[in-house]
Write a structure and sequence with these properties.
two-stranded antiparallel ribbon, DNA polymerase, domain 1, mainly alpha, 2 domains, single chain
Length: 244
């Protein structure tokens, strides 16, 4: 213990209530993360309060965390995967303990590959299958959309098709696409593209005012797009104005 004390470990802080300290950790981060991310962290804080109750930090070891993970999955009949809720809970917990490592505790009780350590391979759910379009298939989809737009008079029915068309060329996130404005269209070196700096949040039902995990004011220039796409967007702008 004396060696631990001399190395800078604050052993007394290990007697603090884990759930209370985790909540303080979340509160400190509240102003630096998005509302959606904050909600996820707060959900973890609420779950930890309910499960660990008054357990102290120095009593939370790898075995205890493993038992928590299994109890959570069993109770909620949850799946086990990298994108699962329990994966997020363990990630939040690991980040919290990382801030204490070398200060209050010796080593992080949440292993880097917690899921693989805590669960058997048979416990994992099968990853969702994804289909990747070939360039030829993608070209046919674009041609079909452009053909549709030439016959559709009701302007609101253009929106979804244009969204897919823009997405097929840029690959931007859906919440970024929802925040796209005509002023985001720019030309660089005689090539057309988009410069984006905002995104939509389904959680707050409003714009974030920034891109995901980026400070306000940060912008990103996307890959070049065909001039034909820009002409369609300009036509849509004119038709939309008349419709409104």
């Amino acid at each position: 213990m004396w060696v631990e004390y001399e190395s800078g470990l604050k052993l007394a802080d290990g007697k603090s209530i884990f759930a209370d300290e985790f909540q303080k950790y979340v509160d400190k981060r509240a102003k630096t993360i998005s509302p959606v991310t904050l909600k996820a962290w707060q959900d973890s804080a609420n779950v930890f309060k309910n499960y660990f109750k008054r357990a102290k930090i120095n009593r939370i070891n790898t075995a205890v965390i493993s038992q928590y993970a299994h109890d959570y999955v069993d109770k909620h009949h949850a799946t086990v995967s990298k994108s699962s809720t329990i994966a997020k809970r363990l990630s939040h917990m690991r980040n919290f303990f990382k801030s204490l490592d070398g200060k209050v505790i010796k080593g992080n009780p949440v292993p880097a590959n917690a899921l693989k350590m805590f669960f058997r391979q048979s416990d994992f759910s099968i990853s969702q299958e994804r289909y990747i379009f070939t360039p030829d298939e993608l070209a046919k989809i674009r041609d079909l959309i452009i053909s549709d737009l030439q016959t559709i008079d009701y302007i609101p029915n253009w929106i979804g098709r244009l969204a897919v068309l823009v997405e097929s060329y840029t690959g931007m996130r859906v919440n970024e696409l929802q925040a796209l404005k005509f002023k985001n269209i720019i030309q660089i070196d005689n090539k057309w593209t988009f410069k984006i700096n905002n995104s939509w949040s389904d959680y707050i039902k409003d714009f974030n005012g920034s891109l995901k995990a980026r400070p306000k004011g940060y912008s990103r220039t996307l890959v070049p797009v065909p001039e034909g796409l820009i002409k369609l967007l300009r036509l849509f702008k004119t038709e939309q104005k008349e419709f409104l």
